[in-house]
Amino acid sequence: MANPEALEDGAQRTEVKDWDGPDDQGNPRNWSPQKKFYHCAIPTAIAFLCPFGSSVYTPGISQVETEFHVTREIALLPFVSYLLGLSFGPIVAGPSSETFGRKAVYICALPGVAAFTLGAGFSQNITSLIVCRFFAGLFASPGLSIGTAMVSDFLPLEKRGGPVAVFITMVQMGPVFGPIIGGYVTESKNWRWTQWVILFGIVFAFALTAPMSESYKAVLLKRRAKKLGIEPPPEFNTSALQSLKYFVTKTVSRPIQMMFTEPIVGLFDIYNAFNFGLLNAFFAAFSWVFENVYGFGIGSTGLTYIGQAVGSIMGLLIVLYIYNSYWAKESKKAKEGNSSANMAPEKRLIIAKIGAPMFPVS
């Protein structure tokens, strides 16, 4: 075991409670701009890939119907099961990233996505396809649930707006490019190639992720304490049993409790569920409507989603403009009296005030 570290005054360090001042090189917020950019690119790339995996399957639904002799409703289930996996996965992914670190979750999740995507591509019946797609979505879910948390590890609040806006835009762009790419590979090859395309993306994402550094503060301080041979703070030093108990009693139950007891949380959940449900309904319906009503080919049907990509980019530009022109000023104003103060949360509602009316109009 390593000896406790000697401090500048000659005393021996006996605990690790926080960073060693604002210039601590172990603090991710002191990383170089290049390193921060690289670590922003990782969750952004994975955020594109994970929802891409849901919609890339949809152009192959007709071929799945024919090959497995099932109805269209049954052939849609692998698409639905992937989305269910994306929905349930964050319940485990979020707490796991705060126990084992962001890197550990990404490194473990991506091979899982690859394995079940491979299984989906080789499926010989609809049941195995549905099951494999569910677990592929489950392992893909960290790409959506821990990305913004990772960015907040190394960027202060006033600098997160742009990177987080780009991250969320990639979440929207992934499902858009899924039917476009999936349509042409299904047309030229077959539906199984929609799964092989996901694998190509996973290889790239894993190569990008493998060299990353850990960014979560609690995990880094635990490692520092272990390296110095001293005990970490009690809040960072929890056993597996304690973590499991906290997971069951707090992580799982508290969001459900808040959804039913906090009107703002409940209404916001319903609104988001409706928005994402409608968005994914487009991917299921467009292919049938444009192929059977308007006579589009499988490949050209995917091009009908370009409008959503244009809308997502326009939304990104609006957010970036508001971030630089409004939020930056409000944040600076809030810090005038107190350097540690942050902009009032309700100031961020300006985006909702713009977007909410535009959604039904569009």
What keyword list fits this structure?
362 residues; mainly alpha; Growth Hormone, Chain: A; 17 helices; 72% helix; 0% strand
Describe, in plain words, how this protein is organized in 3D.
Helix 1 packs antiparallel against helix 11 (193-209) and helix 5 runs antiparallel to helix 6. The protein has helices at residues 33-55, 61-68, 72-75, 77-88, 90-100, 102-121, 126-140, 142-145, 147-154, 161-188, 193-209, 217-228, 240-261, 263-292, 298-302, 306-334, 350-361. The protein has a single domain (28-221, 232-308), classed as Growth Hormone, Chain: A (Up-down Bundle), CATH 1.20.1250.20. The model is unreliable at 6-11 (pLDDT under 50). 31% of the residues are buried. It is an all-alpha fold and 362 residues long. Residues 1-31 are annotated as: Disordered.
Uncertain segments are: 6-11
Q: State the CATH topology.
A: Growth Hormone, Chain: A
CATH superfamily: MFS general substrate transporter like domains
Give the number of DSSP strands.
0
Apparent shape: globular
Order of helices and strands: HHHHHHHHHHHHHHHHH
Summarize the structure.
One of its GO terms (cellular component) is plasma membrane. The protein has 362 residues and is mostly helical.
Topology, element by element:
Elements: H1 33-55, H2 61-68, H3 72-75, H4 77-88, H5 90-100, H6 102-121, H7 126-140, H8 142-145, H9 147-154, H10 161-188, H11 193-209, H12 217-228, H13 240-261, H14 263-292, H15 298-302, H16 306-334, H17 350-361
Helix pairs in contact: 1-4, 1-9, 1-10, 1-11, 4-7, 5-6, 5-13, 6-7, 6-11, 10-16, 13-14
